[in-house]
Amino acid sequence: MKVSRATDRGRVREINEDACAFIPPDTYVVADGMGGYAAGEVASAMLIDSFRESFSDAGRERSEESLRHVVQAANRRILREAAANAAQNGMGTTVVALQCADGTAYWAHVGDSRLYLLRAGELKCLTHDHSFVQDLLDQGSITKEEAERHPKKNLLTRAVGVEENLTVDTGRFIIEAGDVFLLCSDGLTNMVKEAAICETLQGESADKARRLVALALSAGGFDNITAIVVECDERA
């Protein structure tokens, strides 16, 4: 596995509420915090801490269920912290997490951060945004072009730390040699077209995550931007 990761507060935001981590040997996480000044930063950091505490031990089971349990535990933790601190009331975070173990990829997702798979030259988004605009798209009420400029584009319908009963999307599949994974926040996907993302992931850059963040910055950098790129030279 070859891993690159990068995060930037962008050109507009005062702080970076995104967080990301590579937790050796096989766990990758991106979180995009929300909830007012500094509170989003707290929520995303707590989410990452929950993953570090759970998966720093290489002996822990890798599965969809174990990922789901960690996200739900982080959800309860953030809710407790928000209830105890009025300044953090309403904070929350997205999450997209990936584990590559014994030739299998396991993933978990809440919110509008995304997991992409580049395989045989084709880029596919494996996650489905939990957002108001995505619901409109699913209903056929708006087009993809209209979604890109919709005024409620950033309104989430699901996030970690918002409600007690949290549904976590998960999946698994067999890894193939040459697979490339991208975990990212919407600060990247709102600024950079998928065609440019695909081209970058297929390119020769030594630090593809940093290259993707640079593209988002050059396009305006209106939000925090985070990317983790995982390249599989052979079966993990």
Which helices and strands, and how do they pair?
Layout: E1 2-8, E2 18-23, E3 27-34, H1 39-55, H2 64-84, E4 92-93, E5 95-101, E6 104-110, E7 114-119, E8 122-125, H3 132-139, H4 144-148, E9 169-174, E10 180-184, H5 186-189, H6 194-202, H7 208-218, E11 225-231
Antiparallel strand pairs: 1-11, 2-3, 3-4, 3-5, 5-6, 6-9, 7-8, 7-10, 10-11
Tell me what you see in this structure.
With 236 residues, this protein is α+β, with helices and mostly antiparallel strands. Helices cover 32% and strands 28% of the residues. The chain is built from seven helices and eleven strands. Strands 2, 3, 4, 5, 6 and 9 form a six-stranded antiparallel beta sheet that branches. Strands 1-11-10-7-8 form a five-stranded antiparallel beta sheet. The protein is globular and about 50 Å long. The model has no long low-confidence stretch (mean pLDDT 94).
Low-confidence stretches: none
Principal-axes geometry comes out as globular
Give the SSE order as H and E letters.
EEEHHEEEEEHHEEHHHE
Total helices: the number is 7
Main sheet makeup: 6 strands, antiparallel
Distance between the termini: 7 Å
| Class by SSE composition | alpha+beta
Mean pLDDT: 94
Query: How many strand segments?
Result: 11
Rg, alpha carbons: 17 Å
Strand content: 25-35%
